[in-house]
């Protein structure tokens, strides 16, 4: 059997970037609420954050820092898909097929690439802009001004805080997400007796959403890397309860480490985790769970649906 036709890198890059931008814009309010709820100070429920933001700043307020995430997410998704296709082609057999273990490796490599080139800097800038937006008089006038100010004040290291745990997280996320999506897609196409044919967008959205959910819960043990030793037992127990605490704990720590006051309050991620644990209690690590899960489910469906349709239009194959 002849090898399958290789995906063109520009097709993957363009389709992935477009899908990432659309997903970021549509789901951004959930990201805004999640990030706001994870900052230090008084704990606010998601609905309270939405109500207060709409009251004081209108709908525009829910999109504070959105440009940074849209650009970052577009870059991230573009890098993710083009890297995945590259690694997948390198790991394919003589017939162009990729086994599940090799798909996991391809996804792992893709996730690490996106962490380095897009996720870490864009998330850091987004977090600082959201943190700044809650001040009576924000110091940053927008994405460009905010980015240049951060680099001037903290250097390039200021936008690369937490790189290693982000690489581990994104590598695991992409490995599981791509493998789950590809496996489910092939299964549905096989049972529907339509191998190689384009699935309806509704089915693609559903498969992508399921892949997002599977990613959350199967990567929990790996997230223990970014949690302090004092929280180890909590991480261990959560793996058996099915809770999202481990993944979310690292998210809370990451948000705190990327906030405006991080340099003066925390020595490193472990110190940050220790302070949250001892000063605010274990439950603080659960803040923002609902909006985070909402976004993960929606993002999986949106990204793969948009990507598949663009690839179909421009003549590619899809993941």
Please, could you describe this protein's structure?
The chain is 71% helix and 0% strand. It has 319 residues and is mainly α. It has a domain at 161-287. The longest helix is centred in the middle third of the chain and has 34 residues, at 100-133. The model is unreliable at 220-247 (pLDDT under 50). Solcar repeats lie at residues 7-90, 101-187, 230-313. It comes from Amanita thiersii Skay4041.
List descriptors:
mainly alpha, about 325 residues, TXTP-like, MCP_transmembrane, citrate secondary active transmembrane transporter activity, globular, 12 helices
Order of helices and strands: HHHHHHHHHHHH
Sequence stretches where pLDDT stays below 50 over 5 or more residues: 220-247
Beta-strand fraction estimate: under 5%
Quickly give the structural class. Answer: mainly alpha
Distance between the termini: 20 Å
Taking the sheet with the most strands, its summary is:
none
Tell the overall outline.
Answer: globular
Cα-atom Rg, whole angstroms?
Answer: 20 Å
Task: Tell me roughly what share of residues is in helical segments.
Answer: over 70%
Q: Count the DSSP helices.
A: 12
Mean pLDDT figure: 78
What is the count of β-strands? 0
Membrane topology: Multi-pass membrane protein
GO molecular function: citrate secondary active transmembrane transporter activity
InterPro entries: MCP_dom_sf (IPR023395), MCP_transmembrane (IPR018108), TXTP-like (IPR049563)
Keywords: Membrane, Mitochondrion, Repeat, Transmembrane, Transmembrane helix, Transport
């Amino acid at each position: 059997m002849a090898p399958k036709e290789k995906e063109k890198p520009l097709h993957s890059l363009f389709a992935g970037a477009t899908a990432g931008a659309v997903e970021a814009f549509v789901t951004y309010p959930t990201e805004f609420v999640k990030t706001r709820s994870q900052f230090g100070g008084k704990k606010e429920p998601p609905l309270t954050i939405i109500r207060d933001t709409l009251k004081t700043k209108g709908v525009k307020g829910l999109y504070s820092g959105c440009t940074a995430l849209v650009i970052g997410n577009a870059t991230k998704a573009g890098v993710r898909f083009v890297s995945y296709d590259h690694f997948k082609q390198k790991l394919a057999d003589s017939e162009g097929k990729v086994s599940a273990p090799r798909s996991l490796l391809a996804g792992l490599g893709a996730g690490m690439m996106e962490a380095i080139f897009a996720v870490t800097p864009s998330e850091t800038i987004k977090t600082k802009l959201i943190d700044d937006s809650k001040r009576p008089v924000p110091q940053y006038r927008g994405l460009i001004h905010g980015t240049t100010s951060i680099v001037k004040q903290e250097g390039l290291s200021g936008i690369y805080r937490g790189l290693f745990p982000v690489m581990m997280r994104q590598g695991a996320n992409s490995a599981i997400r791509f493998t789950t999506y590809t496996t489910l897609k092939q299964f549905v196409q096989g049972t529907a007796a339509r191998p190689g044919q384009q699935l309806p967008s509704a089915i693609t959205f559903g498969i992508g959403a399921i892949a997002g959910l599977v990613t959350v819960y199967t990567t929990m043990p790996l997230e223990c890397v970014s949690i302090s030793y004092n929280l180890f037992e909590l991480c261990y127990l959560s793996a058996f309860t099915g809770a999202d605490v481990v993944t979310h704990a690292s998210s809370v720590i990451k948000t705190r480490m990327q906030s405006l006051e991080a340099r003066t309050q925390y020595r490193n991620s472990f110190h940050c985790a220790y302070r949250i644990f001892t000063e605010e209690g274990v439950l603080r690590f659960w803040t923002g769970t609902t909006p985070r899960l909402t976004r993960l489910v929606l993002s999986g469906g949106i990204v793969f649906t948009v990507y598949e349709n663009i690839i179909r239009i421009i003549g590619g194959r899809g993941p």
